[in-house]
Write a structure and sequence with these properties.
The protein has 705 residues and is mainly beta. The protein is built from two helices and 41 strands. Strand 16 and strand 17 form a beta hairpin.
Length: 705
C-alpha cells in the first residue's frame, strides 16, 4: 500500500508539481485513499484527501486536477488551514489553483484564531493574502441551531488582509439577538491575532453626581512597533475632558505618560489637568536612570475624576547601580501635598538623597566588612523659625560582622561598628545648627533553631536573644525617624529607627522566639513573640511605636497559609497591662468560587506622630463567581472610629466567549472644603474576537445555557 501511495504521489507531482514548483521552492504533497487518472487526463483523488503546500494544509472528500485548466476542483466538506496567518476555512465546494492560495469557495466559513468566525455564501482567496467574503455573518459567539447568536455583524462584503491582519466590512449592520441596532457603511476591525492597531477601542459610559452623565471613547494610535498614543475624549453634562496615554519602549529603557485636560463646571474659570509619567533608562557602567513626574492643577482634581487616591505627589529623578557587593543610589525628589491639614511651605518639598554601600567578604578575622556612606538634604519654602527648618546631613559607617554556627546548632552573630555623622541646620534655633556625631556600637545575636519532623510536617522552634550597646556623642534634629515601627522583621536589628539620623542608645536586650510548622503538603504556619529591654528610655521613640520606656510592648506576629487558599498575616503590640496598643491584620482567601481580601488596622492617638484621632479601619475587597459567566464585585472601606463608610462599590461582570460586560456603582464619602461626596455609575461592554488578548475560550457557553 505504501509503495502504491508513493507511485500516486509521484504521478500527482508530475501533473501538479510542475506549475507549483515554478512559483515556490516547497513541493506539493497529496495523500488520499484512492488516486487515478481519467481517460481525459484529469487526476482524481478520493477519500480522506490531504493536500499540503508550504504552510497551507487542505483536507477534503475529493479533489480533481485538470492540467489544461490548471485548476483544482475540491468537493467538501473542505477544511483549509494556513498555520502562518492563523486562517482556517471551512467550505462545501471550491475551485483553487494548485498552490492553494487563490480561488473560489462556496458555502464557506472563515475562522480566525479559533475565535472569530465569518460565514459567507462565497469566499474568494487572492494572492495568498486577501480573503473576500460575500453576504457575510460574523460573530465570536457560539452558534446554536435553535437560537441566534448574542451578537453578529452582517455585511454585504468583508475583506480579510492576512498581512495587516485587518477586517474591512462593507454595508455592515450590527445585530443583537437578530435585532438590528446600528448600521455602518464602512467598518474596519482588527482580527484576533493583531495585538496593536490604530483605531477605536471599547467605549464606556459613566454617570456621576459630580460630573454628570457622559461617555468615554478611546482612540488608539500605533506609532510604529515601539510607541503608541491613546486619546480618550470624555464628554458629559458637566465636563469636556481629553485623557491621554503615551508609551514608548527603547532598546535600553521605557517611558510611559498619562494624564488629562478638563474644562468643567466645578471650576469653570480654570483649565484642570494632571500628569503622571515614569520611565527608566540603562546607563553605562551598570547604572540605571529612573524618573517620574506627578503633577495636578488642584487638590480635588484627581478624586473628582477618579484618577488617583494619592494625597501626596512626588516627582523624582535618580540613578542606581546594584551589584553583588556594591550598591550606589542617588535621588532628587520634589514633594507636593494635597492634604488640607498640610501646607507645602512647611513640608520638605525638595529632598536630595544619596547612599553607598560596599561589602568586603572575608575581610579579616573571618568576618565581613561593610562600608556605608549616605547623605540627605531637604528644603522647606517657609522662612519661619522651626516650621521652615532646612537640614543637610551626611553619615559614614564602618561595620564588621561575623556569623558562626556552633557545634550544638547555635547561630552566633557578632558585629561592631562606628558611625560618623555631621549635620547643618538652618531656620531652627531650638536645636544646634552645626553638629558632629560619633556613635560606636557592639551587638551580638544568638539564635538556636530546633527542628523535629514527622510524616506530615516539620516543626521549628527558634529562641532568639540580642545584646547591644551604643552611645552617641551628640544628636542632630530628628527629621527622618519620626515614625518607628516594631515588628518581627526588625526584632534583631541593631537600631529600629528607619534612618541614620537616629540610633538607639545605651545597653539593651531583645528576647523572643518563633514557632513554625512547615507541612509537606505546602501548608505553613508561624507564630513570633518578642520584646526589647533597655537600661534607659529613648525620648525619640513614641508611645505607639511600642518601643518607648525601658520595657517595650510585647510583639506578637503570626502567618498562616493553607491548602484551601487562605493566607493571613497579623501583627499586634500588647502593653504591660496586656491591652492591645496597635494591631494590623491582612487576610486573603482564594477559592474556587472567588476571592476575598480584607484588612484591619488600628492606630491609637499619638501627637508625636501627628495623629490627633485614632485610626480604626476595615477594608474589604471581594470577587465572587455567581455563576459560570457572572462575577460579583464588592469593595468597601469603613472607619470604625467615626462609624462611617469611607468608600464603597458594588459591581457585576459578565464574560463568555463573545461578550465582556461590566456594570458598577461606587460611592466616595469624603467630604472636605474642596472635595464633595460623589456617586459614580460605570458601564462597559466589549465584543470578544477582535484584537489579541480578547479570547474567551475558557468560558465557552453550551447550547441551551
Amino acid at each position: 500500500m505504501k509503495i502504491l501511495m508513493t507511485i500516486w504521489a509521484a504521478l500527482f507531482l508530475a501533473f501538479v508539481g510542475g506549475p507549483v514548483l515554478a512559483q515556490t521552492t516547497e513541493p506539493a504533497v497529496l495523500l488520499a485513499d484512492r488516486m487515478y487518472i481519467r481517460t481525459d487526463g484529469v487526476l482524481v483523488a478520493e477519500g480522506n484527501v490531504q493536500a499540503h503546500q508550504g504552510t497551507i494544509r487542505l483536507t477534503a472528500r475529493r479533489i480533481t486536477y485538470s492540467q489544461a485548466e490548471d485548476r483544482l476542483r475540491v468537493t467538501g466538506p473542505i477544511r483549509l488551514v494556513d498555520s502562518e496567518s492563523g486562517v482556517e476555512v471551512f467550505a462545501d465546494d471550491a475551485e483553487l489553483d494548485p498552490q492553494l492560495i487563490e480561488g473560489l469557495m462556496y458555502g464557506a466559513r472563515l475562522v480566525l484564531d479559533r475565535q472569530l468566525q465569518l460565514a459567507a455564501v462565497e469566499l474568494n482567496r487572492s494572492e495568498g493574502r486577501y480573503t473576500q467574503l460575500y453576504k457575510v455573518a460574523a460573530t465570536s459567539c457560539r452558534i446554536c441551531s435553535d437560537l441566534p447568536p448574542i451578537w453578529q455583524i452582517r455585511a454585504r462584503e468583508v475583506v480579510h488582509d492576512a498581512e495587516t491582519r485587518q477586517l474591512y466590512f462593507q454595508d455592515a449592520q450590527f445585530l443583537v439577538f437578530d435585532l438590528p441596532v446600528v448600521a455602518v457603511p464602512r467598518l474596519r476591525l482588527p482580527d484576533p491575532t493583531l495585538a496593536r492597531a490604530t483605531g477605536f477601542l471599547v467605549p464606556s459610559g459613566r454617570s456621576s453626581t459630580v460630573l454628570g452623565t457622559g461617555i468615554k471613547v478611546p482612540y488608539f494610535i500605533a506609532i510604529g512597533d515601539s510607541r503608541d498614543l491613546t486619546l480618550t475624549p470624555y464628554l458629559s453634562t458637566e465636563t469636556t475632558t481629553l485623557e491621554y496615554r503615551y508609551r514608548q519602549a527603547f532598546v535600553d529603557g521605557r517611558l510611559q505618560a498619562e494624564g488629562a485636560f478638563s474644562s468643567d463646571r466645578l471650576q469653570p474659570d480654570e483649565l484642570r489637568y494632571y500628569l503622571f509619567a515614569d520611565g527608566q533608562t540603562q546607563l553605562p557602567l551598570g547604572y540605571t536612570l529612573n524618573y517620574d513626574i506627578e503633577a495636578t492643577s488642584d487638590p480635588a482634581y484627581l478624586l473628582d475624576y477618579g484618577y488617583s487616591g494619592k494625597d501626596r505627589l512626588d516627582s523624582a529623578i535618580g540613578v542606581q547601580r546594584i551589584q553583588r557587593n556594591l550598591a550606589i543610589e542617588g535621588e532628587f525628589i520634589n514633594y507636593r501635598t494635597l492634604r488640607e491639614t498640610e501646607q507645602n511651605a512647611t513640608q520638605p518639598t525638595l529632598v536630595g538623597d544619596f547612599s553607598y554601600q560596599k561589602r568586603l567578604p572575608d575581610a579579616f578575622l573571618g568576618g565581613e566588612l561593610r562600608l556605608t556612606a549616605d547623605a540627605l538634604a531637604l528644603y522647606r519654602e517657609s522662612t519661619t523659625n522651626v516650621d521652615g527648618r532646612d537640614v543637610a546631613r551626611a553619615n559614614a559607617t564602618v561595620q564588621w560582622l561575623r556569623s558562626d554556627v556552633l557545634g550544638n546548632g547555635l547561630v552566633f552573630d557578632l558585629s561592631g561598628q562606628l558611625d560618623l555623622g555631621a549635620a547643618a541646620i538652618a531656620q531652627d534655633n531650638t536645636v544646634d545648627q552645626d553638629v558632629f556625631n560619633a556613635t560606636p556600637a557592639l551587638y551580638t545575636n544568638l539564635r538556636w533553631p530546633l527542628s523535629k519532623s514527622n510524616e506530615n510536617a516539620t516543626f521549628v522552634l527558634e529562641p532568639v536573644v540580642q545584646l547591644a550597646w551604643s552611645d552617641s556623642v551628640t544628636e542632630i534634629a530628628n527629621e527622618e525617624s519620626t515614625r518607628v515601627e516594631f515588628d518581627d522583621a526588625n526584632l534583631l536589628d541593631f537600631s529600629r529607627f528607619p534612618a541614620p539620623d537616629r540610633t538607639e542608645e545605651g545597653v539593651r536586650m531583645a528576647i523572643g522566639g518563633s514557632f513554625s510548622r512547615i507541612g509537606r503538603d505546602g501548608e505553613y504556619a508561624r507564630l513570633s513573640l518578642g520584646r526589647v529591654l533597655r537600661d534607659i528610655s529613648d525620648p525619640d521613640l513614641s508611645t505607639t511605636s511600642g518601643l518607648s520606656g525601658v520595657r517595650s510592648d510585647w510583639l506578637v506576629a503570626g502567618q498562616l497559609s493553607t491548602l484551601n487558599g487562605l493566607e493571613m498575616i497579623s501583627r499586634a503590640l500588647i502593653d504591660e497591662q496586656f491591652d492591645l496598643s496597635k494591631t494590623e491584620t491582612r487576610l486573603g482567601w482564594d477559592t474556587g468560587w472567588g476571592n476575598i481580601n480584607a484588612t484591619h488596622i488600628w492606630l491609637p492617638v499619638d501627637p508625636d506622630e501627628d495623629r490627633t484621632a485614632a485610626i480604626n479601619e476595615v477594608t474589604l475587597s471581594t470577587s465572587i463567581e455567581l455563576s459560570r459567566y457572572w462575577t460579583g464585585l464588592v469593595d468597601w472601606q469603613y472607619d470604625l472610629a467615626s462609624e462611617r463608610s469611607v468608600r464603597a462599590s458594588l459591581g457585576v461582570e459578565y464574560k463568555n466567549e463573545c461578550l465582556d460586560m461590566r456594570l458598577a456603582a461606587s460611592r466616595r464619602f469624603t467630604n472636605t472644603t474642596s472635595i464633595d461626596p460623589s456617586t459614580d455609575y460605570d458601564f462597559r461592554i466589549g465584543l470578544r474576537g477582535f484584537g489579541a488578548g480578547r479570547s474567551g475560550s475558557d468560558i465557552i457557553r453550551t447550547c441551551g445555557s
